[in-house]
Amino acid sequence: MTTETQETGLAAYLNGDFATALAEWTKLAEEGNAQAFHNLAILYQNGEGVEQSDEKAIEWCEKAAEAGVIKAQTHLGFLLLQDGQPEKAATWFTQSAEEGDVDAQFQLGMMYHMGEGVAQDNEEAADWFEAAALQNHSDAQFNLGVLYAQGQRFHHARHWWQKAAELSNESAQDALAQLDEAGV
């Protein structure tokens, strides 16, 4: 029943039938289904089939995150950032980043680079950017290149910018052109 209800809810959602998706996922949530918690968070965040509520989106997403749904942990981090809770967001991003979530890894890199919700630390930022870069996250590759360039390590910067450029990252393409112009 659980798989069938989940699939029925997903099919309804994809067809824009948010009322059916809400009904199916609410049944599952009442049974303690963690993925249903996350699905309900998305409905509330987007106001699909329900009145839009960031507060309810956070509540449902937190239930899913606490139950171990990695994408929900990352999603919760973004919701908490939007809600002005960067320290709490960093905690959830760290949890999902350590599980390999590329978006959380990149976001943690940004937070450490900017000192948002965590102490500013470019070495920690570089570690998280590299984790995401190794999963072909082009913005992480670009940012890692920037950190290397700031440290005058242009060979490493070029390496990461080349990888990002191969993924059509325009900022990396521009950075490579600037390196070439400078003869570096």
Automatic annotation (TrEMBL):
GO terms for molecular function: beta-lactamase activity. The keyword Membrane does not apply. The keyword Transcription regulation does not apply. Keywords: Hydrolase. Its EC number is 3.5.2.6. SUPFAM superfamilies: HCP-like. PANTHER family: ACTIVATOR OF C KINASE PROTEIN 1-RELATED, CHITIN SYNTHASE REGULATORY FACTOR 2-RELATED. This is Putative beta-lactamase HcpC.
